[in-house]
Fold each of these.
Amino acid sequence: MQRKAVALISGGLDSLLAVRVLQEQGIHVEGINFFTGFCVEGHTHAIRKKDQKKPKRNNALWCAEQLGIKLHIIDIVEEYKDVVFNPKYGYGANLNPCLDCKIFMVKKAREWMEAHDFDFIITGEVVGQRPKSQRKDTMPVVQKDSGIEDRLLRPLCAKNLPQTLPEREGWVDREKLYDFSGRSRKPQMALARKFGFEDYAQPAGGCCFLTDAQYSVKLQDLWKARGNKQYEMDDIMLLKVGRHIRPEPGYKLIISREEGEGKFLQGYRKQYPSLKTTSHAGPLCLIDGDFAEEQIEQAARIVARYSQGKNADTVELEYRDTDGNTRNIQVAPLPPHELNKEWIV
Amino acid sequence: MSRISLDCRRLLCPMPVIRVQDRITELQPGDELEAVCTDPGVMQDIPAWCRINGHQVLEQKIVNDEYILLIRVQGD
């Protein structure tokens, strides 16, 4: 009877190798990839015009194709919020709840495994590779809290860990698994060469925006301004785009930095009031939050400061409300020394 | 056989892929799904997903800045 494993596929080298190791032992593997909304993959590339000339692949799909396995991409945006709001094991250096995230993903994979009659889960984890979720003392926490217990196999470091059910039952030969540990990538690269993988994704500082310091500052600013730790999909998308400037606690400006961002922000003009320079080439700006009528001029002066008319006496802008009503405003661009650095999020 | 249209405008990858994947599970072999998208990444990602999962991309085109893919659902 051919045993079946579901693999957590991030698109990186480790999960690619972990699957191939199991395929070499005759295990049927299918991949699962979770979309949290914070995944770096694809988004900024799609938004920014300057990046669009070089087509960017989705690495999880690419890995699945190299391996010849099916990949199931699962939207967990709503359920994932609780992981971000209330991580039992806390955050890492930024707003990254890495251990809780891993527990959550393994738990969701377990549910998928049970629903689809698979036998166990594999991941590309390597003991000692990550400061929170891939330590010898936290790896068993993932198994216990996710409920997967000994049906979670980590082929790249299995020999450093207690035997799992697939090994004990003889579904998998432990001797053909690996004993990688630590942060060095050399053993993985050597194994990739052995398997003939050359064009795999290079590690690039994580695949989640929550590990990014600047992004975390923007998310904390959003929570502080709203008085609670809530977010919607549009919020987390917009945190990836443009300059964010908060001249008053109640509202902030999201100002495009180039044409691609401007085009992307245009799609939000029915949800947010906006400003666009008309007398000079310039950015599109969304206004997020509650603001008084007289604050529109202040916002317009800031936006004008980022237009081609920044040195002109006056710049004309179109203000548009969410119903599509428009009016023109003429302002003097804000001089650089009047732009308070503390406004910049 | 039926032909279904799926609006994926303003969604960024991988969301259009997820929408296509989830819609296809409700369709029968031979049905056709037309996905209308605005993220150029779909021109790589949706065909890749189809190749992996055994479905056929009949056509992909760009019309007025929209990326349109026609997919024929295949059986297991």
Note: The beta strands of chain B are 3-8, 32-37, 56-63, 66-72.
Amino acid sequence: MKYIDEFREKSIVKNLADQIAGFSDRNINLMEVCGTHTMAIFRSGIKQLLPKNINLISGPGCPVCVTSQSDIDCMLELASTKNLIITTFGDMLKVPGTKSSLEKIRSDGADIRVVYSPLDALEIAKENKNKEVVFWAVGFETTSPVIASVVDDTRKLKLRNFSVYCCHKLIPPAMAALLASREIKIHGFLCPGHVSSIIGTKAYQFIAQEFKIPCVVSGFEPTDILETILMLLKQIAKNTASVEIQYKRAVHPQGNIPAQEMLKRVFLPCDADWRGLGTIPQSGLKLNSDYAGFDARSKFQLKTKKAFEPKNCLCGEVLRGVKTPAQCKLFAKICNPENPFGPCMVSSEGTCSAWYKYNR
Amino acid sequence: MKNNEKILLAHGGGGKLTHRLLKELIFPAFSNPILAKAEDAAILDLKGKTAFSTDSFVIQPIFFPGGDIGKLAVCGTVNDLAMMGAKPLYLTAACIVEEGLEVSTLEKIIKSMAKASQEAGVKIVGGDLKVVEKNACDKIFINTTGLGSIPKKIDISAENARPGDAVIINGFIGEHAAAIMSARQDYKLKTSIKSDCASLNYLIAGLLAKSGHIHVMRDPTRGGVATTLNEIAQQSNVEIQLEEDQLPISAAVRGFCEILGIDPLYMANEGKVLVFVAQKDSGKILSAMRKHPLGKKAQIIGKVSRGNNPQVLLRTSIGSTRIMDMLTGEQLPRIC
């Protein structure tokens, strides 16, 4: 298939892998902060092509996984309201809250619908004007512009029964928080391709300048990821740190300006709670005052309560790249995709799920 | 039957409306002497080993590119019998219909079942029709149960895979699930993909005539090729190695899967068979398949190896190896 097979071409893969193998003997930790990268790395088996001294670590790149337990509990509570429909992406259904999950309370009769796009949630609101429809929005900068445009449309349509519970997060502040914690040594970041197609490269400049850590925006095919690794190794060897784009066929340094404007029109940065990382200043998005009427938090006077992570679950450590799933006592023993303890086993982009599926 | 006539609860009540439906629609469509007797049970004369299988069909939408619930209900059970090496002979069909369904829709489905059973050479010798209140089911659910006779010397079982066996599939993977997902318009993707829904009994009879060394046959329906191969690996206690490069996947399904980020190996098929055959006969079986209209795109996709664990391994297109687990959870909504 055109534009796919070229990026999986064996001879190019081998050539890149050979260059990486001969590059350096130093132990180097590279972190990917995108769930789609995590899955792509496991699915194509890239780790087997890398020498032992190059260690790929998965970071907090799965939007479902980083959603805090208290936000999940809050949604579970809201879902049992009469005449209210919760709409969200499929992976959110299984994520365990403190007491239950959306999937479980749906089987008890709560009206919870999976949508592929927030536009579908808006359609549900149009068709059910006698009910409240809440869209539980999760995701990084890739998904937030679409939500912003849906909220904007809702206002234009004067639709009063639609609101959004916003758990949107921003990737660069999380990268900075990981570096600032000094909990783990990271030599370079594989920056997320889709997020960067929206935000461009400027958003990572401070990582390169202040923390002196090389950043390369990567595509998702095997040759993309290998080329990105090689570009990072070259920067590390030269002791330089800049933001480069490997994924040039999709990412422009300036990003997608109309999408950025849409974000600015609807959202404001805010402090956000991340599973495993705690509260990170200015790392989330909330609806600004022009759109406050569509904020499910104020509409239903929702208050998040402190929630506790499941006992012995290492999702937090896994999200910070400090531990691998194999180091978790629960992994593949009592925690598996049918009976997940933490979100990293639930989401199709979760690190535990990737390890379980491809790497046991 | 009048135009625009709807199914009423009374159609399933056993009274006059039921009899009219049977007389005007069902008996003429399935016409055969055993059914025509209209007894409480069909009387059959079976000799030798018999395969016996049942399946229920709840697909949504009931009409889809490449088939409909009626065709699927016949092909599904015919295929389950054929997978055991049996010659499918008789089916029963039980329909649960939601009140309010157009009679013309039911008629289309019944006629489609009649056509599919004729093509597969099986007789529908018994059945049932119940009508339930609106919203108690979704339009129509169909159960079919089938009987087939197993010729002497045939010993097909999911426990029979042996190291050295070649794994062969008769064509493109994932077509049924992709067709259904497109038809449901859940993802607003327009495609020309058609379900592969088909009865495989004649294809399989031809293969069994060519080689006495076919060890396993199974149709990769729900859960797809990956799940079916895992079942076989466990039941036979062997390791199966698949070659990603050899998997027959149409450009349309590949594109569909790449866009949605789903794996065709976990997508349902309704006209595919995985055949495990001794290596020495693999060429013969492959060419026999390719000569049949339902096997033109057949491919050897892997082999059975000794291995320490009953598992399925995939050699990826870039030359790495990874495990390929069973489908966990539900990848798709109701698709069969």
Note: Chain B has two domains: 9-149, 166-323.
